[in-house]
């Protein structure tokens, strides 16, 4: 433990930025400049601690020791930069740098209102997220967890329309139920249990809190209750089913929010909290040894219910994602599924699975951020939100859709993208334990297939179809269970069905999605050609931008925020997508971050040993189990777990 | 020493005597009320601060009025618990008085009632005699009736009458309870009662009857469901500058007095052995938490909503007393004390904010608060902070109180109570978020115009689109509600500053959880042996 102000500085640097952002609200360039400066400073502070932390140091700042103020009796308001904290803080602050550029491009591209509030809340969210990363005990993490719910609320309700307000309400309800009710209750339980065997504490300890383990011998039921309360509390933000539905609704927020916060910082703070609970509050040993009597099955470890919920979530969410036509919503369900990978890996308790789960935090972050950035870029450039309107969009946005492909492969866990590495370790973990854990392995593999099932169609329709020649989308458009008819879309369905009177009745009987399929070629934009008045494909860049800004004004006055009105503005223009070069498809403010993050996902996948995250993940697991990672792989799980508490 | 213990009676006597000055001098001079009230309040604030520093460093201070022995005379006690309330009373009174300088009400009669109220409240906090407590309860109530009745229109008179009837019944209940206890023990001094009540020769039936009457009396005074009915209309109809004072202090002082009787007079061990005492107090508290919130959520007037919120927040305090009785929990008592102070500060700030908004825009309903954040960012921001503090978001003061109360309930293994306390976060959020959403995420509504039907026709009946007409004010011909283009001269920077200070104070106190416990420590060891 080294006393150091840097953990606090890392938290506060973006809090200071809030004041500067608000103060410079009249000068947008300066305002966005503060975001970038704060992001760089935050990353710099976190990175400056990295070498020492890798060397085994832990930096600590405590309110009591620096000011003498006791937050609550027996509880210090303390920040601690340990490997796990650095792991999350490094990820969030690194990605914020690029997101702040991207957000600038996005918000200006759409000419959004209340940008000052947006950037201020964004900076506050990062403060809270890093606070969660560095929190040294359950109360401190609770404080930041609640603050994070609070400061992301303005971002979710940003649009100030009915849909956004409802999403905001739902968001507050879910997150405060998780934080203010479950997490607080669990924290109070832990405090009370440890108070019974000595001085009360809620401070994290690698491998689990010893006082809690002692108390759990006397009060096993309450220790279990505390565990499940804490998991439920963090599980809300980690979007574990059945607490997940806020996430899809929160997609009404501007895309940078969906990207950095609702795919990385906020949701992963939930997954990160679960990691803290499993690794450093109860500890793998206690979780495994506290028997939970399940009727009909017998006694199982506390981890099994969590793993079952996670396995269910990742399968179910993947299936739901397949039927979402709105791209951001599809990505949201994908996030729900991918977060459950992390929870599943952690709750399998095997060192390899844990390392894989931890590595999945950055792996998923890079890939999913790429996907969201792409979705946002498409939205800004073409106002297209629905996958069914994206046929042939690869011509218009080649670089974006290439990056999207990389991200999609990462989701599915295909090498050489980062998602492969994490999934590989999780599968090793499941396989080494064997037995019923094969079910979890099967869920992971099945989910990989489903991932391809919901993301590949996007890539396919973008690159291999064109606006006037594309297939029907059977999963989306047909009633559940499918239809007896050709899925080929190139023949005119009416002509093909021509003389068959029976087919007519079929069509009439078919579900309400059927007419939508027939209207496929009648784009709403055709009725509003003023949206896309670009005269010629070879028009020079100036004309292009002018035309774009014109259409911008018109469209932004309609609506472009994810309710069904988007069908009015999305889709290809009357003349089909323009063919653009990868460098002219959008502003560099958005393209550069997309390219960098997608590259990051590949780098993490090709050389995980050289990118710091995998090493940190190993280090965290080694700290928990108290032996080198190479030995851990070979040690049977039971034996490894007994070593935890030594 | 003597100079210190003289402060205690002066804290009570000075405002009550000063209360006569505005009216008496007002016969000759027009504007005497303000300097008298201002000087007295400042003096009280300073004296309370000095006394607090003495008490928290040197321990309890007593003053025996007139030198009569406690058995017959009246004893005034300033200990760690009562000083918390005294500090709250003087601080809030100072803040509210400063606010009314510009925001109103003004006038000599107001200053008289104000000083009388402050004197009564300080009396409740400092007295060590159960009958004397009744006297101060009545002084407080009478001043409050007068202040409520000074609101505009006949509704204020009705509200005041309602309060008068219920308040008098409550005070009588308390007096009957005191009479029973006096019958059984022959003394009215709190410390002597504490030794006399558990004595074997005391008739337990009389004591129980006494406690039952006292509980019902305080349930009315503290506005616990279903005896709360006086409170929302009193808060709503009182002049805007008065509501913060009443809401923050009157019920708080009564709740403090109830807690004082539980821990000092009847004592926790005795009540724990009394059948059903804990269960009844717990039930009153928990039911009020739930009922108060439900009622708050369905209100349209902001003041009424906050009034019902007080019902539920005091429910938490009463539930904490129940935990103190049931589990001999020191933690829950700390929680109750902190929540009394915290809630007082929060409600004072919130009602001051409400008064400010009403003064500048005439907005009183939740709907009329739409778009406030753009018009008055500092007031809206402060109210947001105060509301979230009330919800229990850390590091606000509301969280600290809730933490201790919840911890006490868990330590005593009262799981249903713990569940209610944890859930109260969500329940409070339900009405807090409603107001926040209006202030920040709802553009100012437009007045219904006859042309509004046009928007509906173009939208083709899609339910989602109903709002789009509202969100785009340029389309509409209707004029905006009072939120824009109104007279802002009535609001001074100082008034805004007071609300901001309240918000900042609520955050600062949020870090004082450990400090509160340290301050109360000597009192707790004395009460819980």
Explain what this protein looks like in three dimensions:
The complex is a heterodimer of chains A (646) and B (529). Chain A has a domain at 299-494 and 577-646. In chain A, a hairpin with a 3-residue loop joins strand 4 and strand 5. In chain A, helix 1 packs antiparallel against helix 5, helix 4 runs antiparallel to helix 11 and helix 7 (162-196) runs antiparallel to helix 9. Chain A has a 3-stranded mixed sheet. In chain A, strands 4-5 form a two-stranded antiparallel sheet. Chain A has helices at residues 6-23, 28-54, 63-67, 83-110, 115-134, 138-156, 162-196, 210-218, 220-237, 245-249, 255-281, 283-289, 303-322, 327-347, 351-382, 393-396, 398-412, 418-433, 437-463, 474-477, 493-497, 501-509, 513-518, 524-527, 541-558, 566-569, 588-606, 612-625, 629-634, 637-642; strands at residues 2-3, 59-62, 78-81, 292-294, 298-300. Chain A has 646 residues and is mostly helical. Helices cover 69% and strands 2% of the residues of chain A. The model of chain A is unreliable at 495-567 (pLDDT under 50). Chain A is globular. Chain B has 529 residues and is mainly α. Chain B contains 22 helices and 2 strands. Chain B has a two-stranded antiparallel ribbon with strand order 1-2. In chain B, helix 17 (397-411) packs parallel to helix 21 (493-510). The radius of gyration of chain B is 24 Å and the shape is globular. The model of chain B is unreliable at 447-487 (pLDDT under 50). Classes of the chains: A mainly alpha (646), B mainly alpha (529). Chains A and B meet through helix 6 and helix 7 of A and helix 17, helix 18, helix 20 and helix 22 of B. Chain A: It is found in: Cell membrane. Chain A: Residues 489-579 are annotated as: Disordered. Chain A: Residues 135-447 form the NADH:quinone oxidoreductase/Mrp antiporter transmembrane domain.
